[in-house]
Amino acid sequence: MAAFSCSSFDHETIPARTSFTTWTCQRSKNGGKFELKASNVRPAGAISLQTEGTRTHPLTANPVKTREKESSLAFRESREEESTLSIVVLGASGDLARNKIFPALFALFYEDHLPENFMIFGYARSTMTHDELRKSISKNLTCRIDKRENCSEKMDQFLKRCFYHSGQYSSEEHFLELDKILKEKEAGRRSNRLYYLATPPSLFVDAVRCARRRASSLSGWTRVIVEKPFGRDLESSRGLTRSLRQYLSEDEIFRIDHHLGEELFENLLALRFSNLVFEPLWSRNYIRNVQLIFSDDLGMEGQGRYFDDYGIIRDILQNHLIHLLALFAMETPVSLDAEDIRNEKVKVLRSIKPLGLQDVVVGQYKGCSEGNASYPAYTDDPTVSKNSLTPTFAAATLFINNARWDGVPFMMIAGKALQSKRAEIRVQFRHVPGNLYNRNSGTDLDKATNELVIRVQPDEAIYLKINNKVPGLGKRLDCSDLNLLFKTRYPSEGPDAYERLLLDATKGEHRLFIRSDELDAAWAVFTPLLKELERRKVQPELYPYGSEGPVGVHYLAARHNVRCADFSN
């Protein structure tokens, strides 16, 4: 405890603080003078006034220079220079690793987003040498069109950082061998390790157990990226989470759906929360319905084995579109920090009414011929059962039971082998009250309401449909677009979704990854529907390969007064 006279102390005599200090001015026991007393006990609810690079004087609030922050930063920077990032791709011999993960890591390396000391280890059951791995992944490495300088040189540098180790996913002995090799490469530096589970879900728990017990970092952090699917229903998802949590904390688990790393998610936040014009309209008072669309113009193309076990509802609606809906409909978060955003998303998910059979239409594409071209049916795929009832198309109407969105239908549409490849959100606003420009002037505003479209594919864009008067002597209206086409406004090639997600994982940023309670809330919406579909063996409506999908989707939309999106614009 230090004491100073209130009337005659020298500012410079106040000692530098090494912990939170409370200063009080009180009369001394002799009753003659006031004394300033310091205590290292933090009062309840107290807030430190110390800011970066300065210490605030307790009475005058004048900043007092201190070197504590500078020395702390210098120490942290030196520790970062001494650390090594080791990325281990489990399932390195598979298509996902070869076509997506390694190319994304190379792009991050090319853009100098990886630390100076890093290495990448492929791990799989296949027997392979380092050179064979490098030759395999080099076929898919490319440099962006606008950044071709030293491309070959950069590729060579990257490939020299890539190594391979063969082993079983359930063998702690094999992971111990991996750990020894990693330690040799890390050369005594502080070790940070990122594991990517690009394996079938049945191998997740064994691989995590072995990695945690035999090959986790003892001096830095260990994180694990888990690929979808995260279970088949609420019960199995919770079981997987419990199993992973035996070896990892929630902060160490990064549940990835690569669609969540697309620019659409980032743009949705920026569009809504940085533009005053949209937030006041973002409610049931002005929005008529919202459509979330994900369509693919390709069929299975030999990849039916995985898909037939899960189907379009688990693969796209529950894993992707439901999280896009939550991001769209959530309240304003306290900040853009991961936990604040995910807290708001969970509130939305918990407010959604679970789906029943009456809320959905399911379909499956059939074969067809067009001219000289012939297109196979889903069940023609050699990896799919001839009697499969797995939906390749699903449309569902969801409602959010809260004050902002009560009564607004959110319609999800997703399918394979459709007319076009498309990923977008379409927001249809209510019609103008009064409708001054009625049918007598040639325009029915009930069919020409404003519409906001946020699109990722085919061409990334944000556009708003508005009504304007056609030039001339009449009063006829026309619908026009206020269009932001990204390839025109921003011609440089943007990052791939995997690049963004991998970089976030190395930084410990969870914003675009799925938290366990988010996962539970999403499965709670779809699990009753999935059980009913399987119990009743519901026959999906057939639709031709390359068409707009089942006719039933239009009846579902009409039931909720939703005008289905026109894919021609």
TrEMBL record:
Q: What EC designation does it have?
A: 1.1.1.49
* Record domain Glucose-6-phosphate dehydrogenase C-terminal: where: 269-561
Q: Which reaction does it catalyse?
A: D-glucose 6-phosphate + NADP(+) = 6-phospho-D-glucono-1,5-lactone + NADPH + H(+)
Predominant location? plastid
Kindly state which keywords UniProt assigns to this record, in alphabetical order: Carbohydrate metabolism, Glucose metabolism, NADP, Oxidoreductase
Assigned GO CC terms? chloroplast stroma
GO MF terms here are: glucose-6-phosphate dehydrogenase activity
Annotated Glucose-6-phosphate dehydrogenase NAD-binding domain residues = 88-267
Annotated pathway? Carbohydrate degradation; pentose phosphate pathway; D-ribulose 5-phosphate from D-glucose 6-phosphate (oxidative stage): step 1/3
Question: Could you tell me which SUPFAM superfamilies the record lists for this protein?
Answer: Glyceraldehyde-3-phosphate dehydrogenase-like, C-terminal domain, NAD(P)-binding Rossmann-fold domains
Q: Which family does it belong to?
A: Belongs to the glucose-6-phosphate dehydrogenase family.
Q: What is this protein called?
A: Glucose-6-phosphate 1-dehydrogenase
Which source organism does the UniProt entry give? Answer: Eucalyptus globulus
